[in-house]
Amino acid sequence: MSDNLKQEILELKRNQELIIKLLTPVFTISTVARLSGRTPQAVRDWLTKNSEPEVDFFKKGGKIIVSKEVALMYINERR
Can you give the pLDDT at residue 45? Predict the structure, then answer.
């Protein structure tokens, strides 16, 4: 199998994972970090600098939940 084909398969797998996650109504910081390839701390730092608490993200049960719009904006910005 050629390297180019392997890369395309990996990209399709990443896209499939992203589509599945888009259908999921809840984005946690760890989900956003995994999908963007960044660390949870980097996502948290970006959220505190570029979004509004209780509107774009909130804390629930010890986890930080990110709005779908902000999560997608971050994931797309970081690719």
Answer: 95
| Cβ atoms of residues 47 and 30 within 8 Å | no
| CB distance 36 to 17 below 8 Å | no
In the chain (79 residues long), the average pLDDT of successive 10-residue segments reads 86 81 79 90 93 88 90 79
Q: Three-class SS string for the chain? A: CCHHHHHHHHHHHHHHHHHHHHHCCCEEHHHHHHHHCCCHHHHHHHHHHHCCECCCEEEECCEEEECHHHHHHHHHHCC
From the CA atom positions of the chain, what is the Rg in Å? 14
**Per the confidence metrics, is the pTM higher than 0.90?**
no
CATH number of the CATH domain containing 35: 1.10.10
User: Which range of residues forms the domain containing residue 33?
Assistant: 3-77
